[in-house]
Amino acid sequence: MNSTVELPEQTIEKIAEHYAAIITLLGEDINREGLVKTPMRAAKAMVYATRGYRQDPDALINEAIFSHEGSNMVIVRDIEFYSLCEHHILPFFGKVSIGYIPDGRTIGLSKLARLVDFYARRLQVQERMTAQICHIVMEKLGAKGVIVTCTADHLCMKMRGVEKQMSATTTIESAGVFQNSPELRDEFFRAIAAGR
């Protein structure tokens, strides 16, 4: 089942026209062999990279929430993601790890990855994305607690501006029992570090 609402072809063509105008304004010949199809390719790539705007999180989860009697932590580590910085529209990418403590329900593991992409595939900032992932998992599961960590490389810092090639950014967000329990937070961070 496709959970993404597709854009009309006319909209994609309009985006391609804007790319053609930008390329021309930069001083390139839009009719040059290597660039003739670039505006449409770029438009389709942008539509794909921002598909999170046109998705429904409930359709992504698709009823993959199950009863569970246990109360121990569940962790999905190193979910890779790709996003676009909303300040420069340059990529940032990295890995997200999610931990939660069930309160009678668990979620299909692949659905956590889908929720990461739901928020990553749009114009975004890492801090907000980390918080959004945390809060949607908490909301959809009714978990006792959720913790999310995200580490990413930002091309807006690497290929422009300060040009710091070795820089990486880590953000952490927590909800529920993780907020007031250093022991649970330590357990989460030990678990995600153990497999590396």
> Which overall shape is indicated by the principal axes computed on the Cα atoms?
globular
Q: How much helical structure, as a percent, in the residues?
A: 40-55%
Poorly predicted residue ranges? none
Instruction: Output mean pLDDT.
Output: 94
Q: How many whole angstroms does the radius of gyration measure?
A: 20 Å
In terms of DSSP E residues, the strand content is 25-35%
Question: Largest sheet at a glance?
Answer: 5 strands, mixed
Q: In sequence order, what are the helices and strands, one letter per element?
A: HHHEEEEHEHEHEH
Supply the helix-strand structural class: alpha+beta
In what order do the strands lie side by side in the largest sheet? 5-2-3-6-7
State the oligomer.
Answer: single chain
Question: How far apart are the termini?
Answer: 34 Å
Number of strands: 7
Helix count equals 7
What does this structure look like?
With 196 residues, the protein is of the alpha+beta class. The protein has 7 helices and 7 strands. The strands form 2 sheets. The chain has a 5-stranded mixed beta sheet, sandwiched between helices. The protein has a two-stranded antiparallel sheet with strand order 1-4. The longest helix is centred in the N-terminal third of the chain and has 17 residues, at 9-25. It starts with 8 loop residues before the first helix and ends with a helix. The model has no long low-confidence stretch (mean pLDDT 94).
